[in-house]
Structures are given as C-alpha cells and as structure tokens.
Amino acid sequence: MNKSGAQPAPIARRVTMQDVATRAGVSRALVSMAIRGMEGVSAESKALILDAAAELGYRHNAVAAQLAARHSKSLGFFLLDIYNEVFADIFTGLRTRAEARDTRVVLSVGQPSPEAERRHVDGLLTAQVGTVVFAGTMLPDEALEFIARTVPVVTVTRLVPGIDSVACDDYLGGDLATKHLLEAGHRSVAYFGPLAGGLYPDRRNGYRNAMEQAGLQPRVIDAELNQLDAARAATELLQSEHRPTAIFAHNDIMAIGVMEAAAELGLDIPKDLSVIGYDDTRVSRLHRVGLTSVNQQASRLGEIAGDLALRRMNEQGGVAQHTLLTPHLVARSTVGTVS
Length: 339
Prior knowledge:
By secondary structure, the chain is of the alpha/beta class.
C-alpha cells in the first residue's frame, strides 16, 4: 500500500558480475578471477575490471558467497543510534518476522552523522547477505540508491524513491503534537530539532503549519539528536527574555534533555513549561517521567520492514513498495493548560 501520494519508482536492479564483465569488455569468468584475487589475470585486465566495478557500484561479498553455499539466510539491520529506544522497538518487530522465517539478523550500529554511517554501512555490506534494512539513516537518497545496486535495501522511518520503505506520517505527528499544545492554551511553542541535512523535515513542517494556521510565529531551535545538546539549547532558551511556555522535541531523547534543563533551572513541568516528545519510547512511560509523546508504531514499522526485506531476498526487481502508518498522540503528565 502506498499512502505517500508519490508515484512508486522501480526497484534498482542489483549489479552483477555479468554487468561488470560487459562494462569491462571481458568474460564473467575473468571478472570472478580478478575480484577474488586469483592468478592468471594480467595487471591491465585487473585494473580495467576493478574500475568498471567501482563505476557500477559492484561489491563482491565473500561472506555472502560462503553463506549462500551453505544455504544460510541472513538479513542485515543498520540502526542509527543505540541510545534511542525507538530503534530497539523497530528491531524487535523485525526480528519477530525474521525468526519466523528462520533468518539470521546481523546488527550494525552507527552514529547520527553521514560520515560515520558510511563507515559502518561499508562494514555491513562487506559481511552480509540477502537484504539490508536501514533504520533512521542519515544518508541521502542518492547514496541509498547506490547501495541498492549491490544489495536490496529497505528503509524504515523515511520513504525513499525506488526503494522499499516504511514510515510513519511525521507531518501528521508534528501537527498532532502542536495542536495538542495549542488546545491547552499555549501560544509560545518552540520546536527542537536538527536543521542540517534536511532528511527528516516533516515533524518540523507539521509543527510549523499548525502554528501558522493558528496565526502564531513558529520558533525552531536547531539542536542535535541527543539529550546533551537538547539540554544545552534548552538551558539557553529558557533563560532568554522571551521564554516559551511549551517545547515540542523531535524525539523523546531530546525531550528528556529539555526536562533536565528545566529542572536545573528550577522550572516545574508542566506548571512552568510543557513538553512533548516523539516516539513514545519506554522512558516516556516511566512513572516519574510521564512524557506526553507521539507514538509512531515502531514495532509495527519493524514488522513491515522485515516482511519487505524477506520478500526481497527471493524476489528482486519490480516496483518499490511504500507504506505510511498513522501516528497517535499519547497524553501523559508533561502538558499543562495556560489560562
């Protein structure tokens, strides 16, 4: 099912040894020998073959070949941030589907930066077979499309043209969170989230649109996707002359950082400041936290991603499948009313 409104794009075909052979003007057997480092290939031919492989994005997977020979199945799962529990929820859903099909899941953990992610993904591609599932990737669409020439790719939390993807409607989620604050009487609402990269703008755009529809000025605060930087930005903002009465954070981790900063400044939540997070992770449900948050059905995202990945292990080509889930807001104790 495609709810994104965009026309599905064809899946990028996986680059094969035959493609490299055709580009280099040699036989497939010679390509196989050159890539495996076997004797009998001249230096000139090897250079020609390796150049052609690099141009096409072909990557020889030695471990994959060994596993395939043993009829073993494995699925690569890349998660962006080990400290964000939403990725654990996604992984749980995916693992349930993989185990039901007797498929091994190999985990690779990255960091919230494209440069670091490329290094981790490179290691994953060298070692894995089947399909690679990206949860929360910071790589641009073009980089993901390039990787998809080597191995089928599924993305979670972001819809990518030409690649199987599953996500939650972040624009609606941003709208739900903001309108919840507006309905509580807040008129000075700030949004905390990263501005760099521009890969996940929908939560911010949903917030911005809801504010503008209410005739209010959006106030976007640039902060990295972690608790420490959110606390830093919140400390500065909450000590400013025009302190907001509410903050909507891009995720629960950032919301916790905001709450920590408020506590350090002696502010009461929700009496002095209301806070909403996003992801509805385990920490938001703790009794002493009680964070109001947007639930994006993380486990379900993982289940759908698992189904897509398992299907692509045996069925390549065709049209990319995009699935968009509907979020819902879970109200707890961090939002107060303003008279």
